[in-house]
Amino acid sequence: QKEVEQNSGPLSVPEGAIASLNCTYSDRGSQSFFWYRQYSGKSPELIMSIYSNGDKEDGRFTAQLNKASQYVSLLIRDSQPSDSATYLCAVKAGGGADGLTFGKGTHLIIQP
Amino acid sequence: KAGVTQTPRYLIKTRGQQVTLSCSPISGHRSVSWYQQTPGQGLQFLFEYFSETQRNKGNFPGRFSGRQFSNSRSEMNVSTLELGDSALYLCASSPGDKGVYGYTFGSGTRLTVV
Questions:
Q1: How far is A35 from chain B (nearest CA, A)?
Q2: Number of other CB atoms surrounding residue A103 within 10 Å
Q3: Which of B29, B9, B21, B5 is nearest to B79 (CA)?
Q4: Subunit contact A96:B99, Cβ cutoff 8 A
Q5: Are strands A106-111 and A11-14 parallel, antiparallel or unpaired?
């Protein structure tokens, strides 16, 4: 059974610091990796996608992928109170099978 | 550009009834998938459609079904509702086949079964 594991938190980070969110996955055939942000009472919002090993940067966000270790991470630089949300890691298998498998999310709190 | 539109936003149904939820994807997106979100199980994949064909189905009973129309709009149906079906149902669309470019979610339909 495909699994995606995340620390549920809460993860508390001071404003302006770097928030580091981690995710591991069980299916070695996974090809596409996504980070979603979900505010309370809202739907998930795609913030990063990554497909190959290494780092991918977009503004204050950096996604990191290590397929050998089956590990994905998200770094948020210069954290702002508006970054406080639940961050969901999602993984899609190669060949398009089975839709997205989501972790249960990490609750991030940015303290002013 | 309009986002993914789901209707209705809220529904209250009685156990044993059936319900149909609707989803209009982003214009030009041909892949539509459905997810169930509950506090205990998180987000779970229900099914995915591309060009009116069901591509994949998650581990849900046959009471959950769906379809996609030629204009890419999609509906999902749940028959013989159970209390445990109370959840947020999310529709997501993707521009390409197999969703490799990620999915954009709608605001969801909050279903309460009493």
A1: 10
A2: 25
A3: B21
A4: yes
A5: parallel
